[in-house]
Amino acid sequence: MSALIENPASCEVRSVIRFLTAKNCKPIEIYRQLREVYGDNIITEGGVRQWVIRFQNGRTNVHDEDRSGRPSIVTAELLEKVDAKVRENRNFTITELSLSFPQISRSLLHEIISEKLGYHKFCARWIPKILTEDHKNQRMAAALNFLDAYHKDGDSLLDRIVTGDETWVKHVNCETKLQSMQWGHTSSPQKPKKCMQTMSARKMMATVFWDRKGVILVDFLERGTTINSQRFIIVFEWNMWQGLDNS
Fold first, then answer.
1. Which ranges carry the Mos1 transposase HTH domain (predicted)?
2. Average per-residue pLDDT in the chain?
3. In the list 46, 49, 63, 67, which could disulfide-bond 27, CB 3.0-4.6 Å?
C-alpha cells in the first residue's frame, strides 16, 4: 500500500471530488478512494455528497467563497491611539478608558488591551521605603567601606558592630486567626473557635540594640517624648555602654 498524502489542501480534495464526479462515480465510491489516498479523517461521507451535488448543479470553483461580513474596526491606527492612552495613565479602568473610545464596546476594548497590545495589570509590591539615588549611593559607599574593613580586620570587625532600631511594642498582642489554626480532619466533630479581639491601642516605642551575638539592650521611650537624634545619642552613650560594661 502506498504512503498516505498528509495535510492536503481543501481545494485539492475538492478537485478530486469534481474529477471523479465528472467520471460519474458514485459518492460512496469517491469517499472510499479519498480515504485510501488521504486517510480516514480527510472528509465525511456527507461532506462528499454535498460537494458532489454542488458540482452536479454547475459549480466549478473548488475554493471557499468570500464571506460578506462586518469589517473589523480594530485597525492599526486604533491600536496606536489606545496604546497612547494607556501610557498616559496606567492606573486606568476599562470604564474610564471607554469614555475616550465611545465607538467600541468595553469588552472589545479589554480584548485590545490584554490580547492585541499585551498589557497585564499588576499590583504594587509593598517595600519599606523608596530609596533615592543619593540613598543608594550612600548605602553602596557604606557597604564598600565595611567590606574593605572586613578584609583588613577579619571577624574581629564583626564583634565591634552594633546595630540599633526602633519598633512599636503593644501592651497586648492578640493571637491572630492564622496563628490559632489547628490541624484536623474534615469529619472532626469539633472545630476550633476563636472570639474576635482587637489589637491593644496602647503601645510604646522601644529602641533595640544588638550585635552578632544577640540583643544587647532594649530601651523603652517614656510617654510624651519622641525619638530623635538627641534622644538616640543619650541612649547610645549612657544605656548602651552601661549595658556593654555589664555584659
1. 13-58
2. 81
3. 49
